[in-house]
Amino acid sequence: MDGTAGGRACVDQELYDVITKAKSGDKEAFAILVKRYKDIVFRYSYGMLADRMEAEDVSQEAFVKAFYSLSKLDNIYAFVSWLKRIVSNLCFDRIQKQKKTNSVSGELIETQISNNDMERRDLRMTIEEAMGNLSPEHREAIVLREIEGYSYDEISGMLNIPLGTVKSRISAARLLLRKEMIRELED
């Protein structure tokens, strides 16, 4: 056996068993999945929302939604992509709600940045503001590529969009970020 199933890299047997148990309603097995993926889910949602509290809320909501929907997952090997799709949809919903209420996204987390490091704080604010100005589709693509480190092919599979669309979204996002950063730094 070559370590693949249907052309996809196999999930290790232990993880496969945990997901199978969780699919049948085993709460302890699901708790193992939460523990294993909570940091990934949080980083992804924070990358999309740039707001710690919103990201924590989305992370929690994503796991609740995943628990109740896990029985519908057909391909255990696609668990991570499926979970990220849930997170992505929840983030898009939050972004749309924020746009409707004109609330400002991109809260700066002062506790993570030294008060003496004004330049770094300003740069972080500029980046968060620039990311906040991207469309949700561009933001999602750039977060998956630059923050999460996924390949173009992996992103294409996760988002279920053509490879060319992934490349154009990332290219456009980089261009928009560059323009936004230059504009912000010139002000």
TrEMBL record:
<dbReference type="InterPro" id="IPR039425">
    <property type="entry name" value="RNA_pol_sigma-70-like"/>
</dbReference>
<dbReference type="InterPro" id="IPR007627">
    <property type="entry name" value="RNA_pol_sigma70_r2"/>
</dbReference>
<dbReference type="Pfam" id="PF04542">
    <property type="entry name" value="Sigma70_r2"/>
</dbReference>
<dbReference type="GO" id="GO:0003677">
    <property type="term" value="F:DNA binding"/>
</dbReference>
<feature type="domain" description="RNA polymerase sigma-70 region 2">
    <location>
        <begin position="33"/>
        <end position="100"/>
    </location>
</feature>
<dbReference type="InterPro" id="IPR013325">
    <property type="entry name" value="RNA_pol_sigma_r2"/>
</dbReference>
<dbReference type="Pfam" id="PF08281">
    <property type="entry name" value="Sigma70_r4_2"/>
</dbReference>
<dbReference type="InterPro" id="IPR036388">
    <property type="entry name" value="WH-like_DNA-bd_sf"/>
</dbReference>
<keyword id="KW-0238">DNA-binding</keyword>
<dbReference type="InterPro" id="IPR014284">
    <property type="entry name" value="RNA_pol_sigma-70_dom"/>
</dbReference>
<dbReference type="GO" id="GO:0006352">
    <property type="term" value="P:DNA-templated transcription initiation"/>
</dbReference>
<keyword id="KW-0731">Sigma factor</keyword>
<feature type="domain" description="RNA polymerase sigma factor 70 region 4 type 2">
    <location>
        <begin position="125"/>
        <end position="176"/>
    </location>
</feature>
<protein>
    <submittedName>
        <fullName>RNA polymerase subunit sigma-24</fullName>
    </submittedName>
</protein>
<keyword id="KW-0804">Transcription</keyword>
<dbReference type="InterPro" id="IPR013324">
    <property type="entry name" value="RNA_pol_sigma_r3/r4-like"/>
</dbReference>
<dbReference type="InterPro" id="IPR013249">
    <property type="entry name" value="RNA_pol_sigma70_r4_t2"/>
</dbReference>
<keyword id="KW-0805">Transcription regulation</keyword>
<dbReference type="GO" id="GO:0016987">
    <property type="term" value="F:sigma factor activity"/>
</dbReference>
<comment type="similarity">
    <text>Belongs to the sigma-70 factor family. ECF subfamily.</text>
</comment>
